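Risk register update: the risk that structure generation would not scale has been downgraded. Supporting records follow, first protein first.
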Amino acid sequence: MVAVLFSRLANRARSSRLQFTVAAVVASQLTASQLAAQEVIPRLTRIDGQANIELDGRLDEAVWQQIPAFDGMRVVTPDTLAESSLRTETRIFYTERGIYVGVMNHQDTDTLVARMTPRDTRLERDGVVISIDASGDGLYGYMMRVNLGDSKTDGTILAERQFNMQWDGPWEAYTSVVEGGWVAEYFIPWSMIALPQASGDNRQIGIYMERQVGHLNETWSNPALPSTVNQFLSAFQKFELEDIEPRTQITYYPYVSGTYDGVDDETEMRAGAEVFWRPSTNTQLSLSLNPDFGNVESDDVVVNLTAYETFFPEKRAFFLEGQDVFNTSPRNQSARGPGGPTSMLNTRRIGSSASFDVPAGVRVADTDLSAPTDLLGAVKFTGQSGNWRYGTLAAMEDDMEIRGTLNDGTRVTLESEGRDFTVGRLLYETTGPAGRRSIGWMGTDVSHSDIDATVNGVDVHYFSGNNRWLFDGQVLRSDVDGVEGNGVIGDLIYMPQRGVMHRFAAGYHDDTLDLNTLGFLTRNDLSHFDYNYTNNSSNVEGLRSREYSMFVFNHWNGNNDWVRQGVFNSLNLTFLNNHSLNSSLRYYARRVEDRLGRGSGDYKIPGRWQFVSTWESDPSQQIRYKLGIDANTEDLGERNTTTTAGISYRPVDNFSLDVEASYTDREGLLVYQGGGRYTSFEATQWSPKVTLDYFISARQQFRVGLQWTGLKAFENKFLQVNPDRLEELREVPKPDAQSDSFVISRLTFQARYRWEIAPLSDLFVVYTRGGNVPGGLFDEYTGLLSESWQDPVVDTLVVKLRYRLGS
């Protein structure tokens, strides 16, 4: 299999005292030149030989008493930079195996907030974070958080504050409640950290400590780096290490899985492995053979009646590991771009549904057409040499077969050829008193008998020495089956003082730019210029914090028609009792709709208003409430209102119940019917979501989740576009006797047991049931829900064991 894949894809503590310098000035005043001017970089304490630490969340081993403690925490949420009200004693040392961190959090035990959650869940509670700048120059790093109760969160960091929370690392941490507070104890192996080559025996890393205090709804950190300043990763406290050159590391992740499909009454067994080999501290080779990329976590239920694709994030571990080198812009990880991310690499395309040529007269189940493609294998190589970072990724899909049925009942087999994917990345980065500068290239290629797609991009990045200016830009060029396209994007941020930000975003995509063979682009044929102003204030009388923002956007197409234009004004308030109110008043200017009609003709849409407001109660309490309203107008001026209510109930640390439901009442849902014809519907929609979590322990979880969306749309008006003249849609008589009214009922239910046997070693038992059955217009919503459950299109039971072996 390997040959096929490659052929196709071408003993004592140091006496030096630990020091942790507390920032005496605001982070926004700490320039790169001042950092470089530090005369003495403290050394972390090294322990030779075995540290004899039992990782149990208690600092009772003798070695911890040899390590000096530091504090220096400042309040960063809300952004007051006041000294913390409670002591936080942190001790850090390292061995040839990794870094040990012990944190004593002084606190009245009656005020502790411990809540168990799945990994990477954001929630207000007591927790401790250590972030490490592995590059030593503020270029890339790792974030690891353990919460009281042992639930973990981790991610990678790119300069300056780009977090990728989808990454999971093999670090360990435990907590315990002790007299006078609680303790967090970490072990972070060198084998999971990409370290650049060091010129001598010494190297530098940066460290940032953070503590969240749940009952106060506050976050403290050292150094004090609130989100209201540009600088983050490059401002970590620098430390010097000696004699760190970990030996060659190799890790295996063999897996075995069994799947029973209740719809087709079939059982499938799979086995394979992933291998991660780190021949040196700055390189890693990853290989996956016969991978099982079936998700053990369902995507959200989405009803999309627009002309734009829905973006779903990656959840597969192999593609998440080492992903950061392929990040070319802040727009890759967020919806900064118009309508969603702008990215050359969207790994959800790899192994997505195959393209089948279905002949006339052949019926094929929609679930078979949309089923993911099996992968024969994938390989990835990433590394660093001096100021250069690089990465390659290749993956190969298997050929697929599905069954169809002729009108007379005869079964036929349809075949589809698998695609080959190749990605290359090269990045040059430099830092110094003048700031940070980098330039990179990335190229992608998709090879298939029906498509030949290549995309190249050059990205540049700049961070000024005074920390006030930040720029990210990229030039793009695509060639899909001989059709070439071009694009350019740029983001400029100016922060004249703490809490004040000006952001300018611009871009141009011609009408033939195509990133969606392997990347993601909401639309081409677009130019845009946006401006965003944010003012964040703390210690406001009667408030904990106040944030005001204004967003002005201007988007136009190649015909110089405004396709999206308007202004948003938002005010977010957090009160002294920790309740919060977020409100936004939005105006959308008159524009042209050039996408919904799929080329049948453009039409004008009048200006409209929107008001959005959400109130949430104190998140640290056992019961948390949420209420929201979205009062909007449809494209043609009719009313569109969505109300949302939710409750979270957490009576004990290891149990939670989250229930949320939204109801939408629309008077003018516009749906394209083909041939330049549209129908406007009066529609109602229910969207409930229920999640129940029970933790046997922090590493054994049982979760039950249900999402359902039911929509009823009754035809109301019939409209036609004028293909010869740009004007508003005109109302016309009903074109035929057939009703356009429709019903959508989509359900996803999942019951999942997960046992984390060891770091990144898991046993999953997952039952998934999904329905997508159109019901009757006059059925009750409860009936639609029942029909979706009783007539599933997905009904699977998966048992999967993945175990980590090796270094």
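Supporting record for the second protein:
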Amino acid sequence: MAGLNCGATVALLGVLLLGAERLRRGADASEIALPPGSGITVLIKPGTLRLPDKPCSIIVSKRLTATLLIKPGVKTGFSFSCQNPENHFVIEIQKNIDCLAGPCPFGEMQLQPSTLVLPTLNRTFIWDVKAHKSIGLELQFALPRLRQVGPGESCPDGVTHSISGYIDATEVRIGTFCSNGTVSRIKMQEEVKMALHLPWFHDRNVSGFSIANRSSIKRLCIIESVFEGEGSATLMSANYPEGFPEDELMTWQFVLPAHLRASVSFLHFNVSNCEKKEERVEYYIPGSTTNPEVFKLEDQQPGNMAGNFNLSLQGCDQDAQNPGILRLQFQVLVQHPQNESNKSYVVDLSDEQTTSLTIEPRPVKLSRNFVPGCFVCLESRTCSTNLTLTPGSKHKVSFLCDDLTRLWMNAEKTISCTDQRYCRRKSYSLQVPEDILQLPVQLHDFSWKLLVPKDSLSLALVPAQKLQQHTHERGCNTSFSYVMASAIPSQDLYFGSFCSGGSIEQIQVKQNILVTLRTFAPGFQQDVSRQSLTVTFRPYFKEEGIFTVIPDRKNKVYLRTPNWDRGLPSLASVSWNISVPSDQVACLTFLKERTGVVCQTGRAFMIIQEPRAQAEEIFSLEEELLPKPSFHHHNFWVNISNCSPVSGKQLDLLFSVSLNPRTTDLTVIVVVVVGGSVLLLFALGFIICCVKKKKRKINKGPAVGIYNGNVNTQMPMQQKKFQKGRRDNDSHVYAVIDDTMVYGHLLQDSSGSFLQPEVDTYQPFQGLTEDCAPSPPTLCSRALTVKLATNEPSPGSPLESESEPYTFSHPTVVNVSKANTEIPLLDTHEPEEPGE
């Protein structure tokens, strides 16, 4: 703590001393004497306009003035009328060097006059050097070297270097530079203008650069950038961000240690409208057999370059009416070669005509420290931070990156159907190609865009493993998931995120859909065998989606409507086909009491339907409470249809389905057993009584049966009748009449074999449920919703237990009198089957 107090005291003392010096020198007079023939002029002028505490003027020979110009051979004394002149004035010291009239003063440039005799103003030293057109002038900068900055950027220490050149009489700004960079030399042709800006509080008394005579460079300028180790440099074309001079050439030379590698990436660029020639960049790379290597500005630029290299920007002859702007800002990154630099990977997309792959940096937080770059290279030379592999070609890829986890891949494939007849016979497996999986970069997204003709076909997605819908109640904890959304541009419909290990066996969607495989961990490479979706084309249906769900016997299934965050789209309908095993009971539970939807037009409904039990419930989602937990013994549907809701009152539902073993009540079992025993005893007693009665009748005399020959005895679908019988003989009298003996010949076919009588026997339905979802009711009024409870039998439905087989009988009243001979013996109508 004492050390901190001492430091604060010293800093405060320094501030007070600096303020005292400012007051003394601001109040005292200054004197500047310029030697004759020095070519130096001093100009004191108002600086940036501010709201002064009080006016301030320059006092020269007791006269007040706003500006003061001091020429060579003149000695001038002056003072200021205020104590803080640095807030009001600036001083420019310009030295004109004419190498055409005499020898140039090559070597280190001096600050003349010295900063010790100058007033405490923001000062700018300017050197304007003119030379012959065939002479090149070189500015050499001592350590620390310069760093180019863009427009609007400022230097931390306030010391700024501005360098310009000339084309004929037109000044061209080469750039603005700060300290602590890589720029070591700048070569100019014919004329150069160097300006050094020093703030009033800076005590620098050297220029930090020298001028040397060089041969003609035959271009606007050459900028040399030297790297001592790893680092980066951002550089700009002349006059940036304005246009580069027409048909000019500018070169950057990069010097770097042999053990390092350099990569170039263009940050911003524009091209002009050329009438002649073509704007381009040229590289001279040591060891290249194609020097210079020519690239367009929009091309991917070289990377992974060892040794020194040059980069040149060449302009063109621009259109006089519409010239446009040529400008370039680029970055050179120098770093150690990485382990992946010498490895290459072949990605063959020759058979993938609709697949594209992009390798790019993943989003990271910016850091002020130097971070080695991550580059993706084609053929080990054309490198960039972003690389897109086009379909239909074979690509050779390598990486220049210290940490490949900083990169990821995104791919997209389009599968479209144009011929309905052909599509219905096809199925497609949505799998990531092996060539993409073998790359040492994490796959982030692989998207399949599935397109079908409008209002003609729909799509069905069947996973290799059943899917789970991601919800807050049960989230996905896998290395990848499927994100499904509508691919129709005008429709904002998000079906949800799904991962393996759930209960959804199939997802059907009405129209175009975008299926995205999204990975969350490097472990996806181990789980790659589990990723597979099969897509088939189905006849068109009108619902947005149909989910086929086979609940897990152990885990509760959570399901929610699409567009959970924004609400189900207006007038959309979604269904869930939920299977219930024969030995289980499904419990359907809604996780809130009301939906909260408010309809602007139309009605919002939910239908819960058991097709097998012929039970259906209809609920108004706008007015009624959501149903309490309900139990379902058979497969059932849940259908939700939306209205056009009021903004902010959207429809979103979350429900769960759980399975429990089906139990049988012991009391019911006892009643059934006792009842069955009583019925059995009653039947036995009835049979015994009938036999005894029949025996008594036989003892009394022969039983007589009367046969009417005019009765139509034709069996259904049999075109036969008895021949006319005798009435006067006893051939039709039997001691005991048996059905088979009397009518047996009617049951024979043409070959003499007996036909078995048709018997209708009902068995419980054990097959699959219907594939057709329940249709929402067409209601235009706001009448009360009608419900049919599942525990109430529907009109006309049988009351027997569905587990008990039974036989339909069709009795027919037959008049055996002689007068009516057209009544058929057997009914020819088929028995009616009960609805399931």
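The chain has a mean pLDDT of 78. On this basis the risk owner (M.S.) recommends closing the item.
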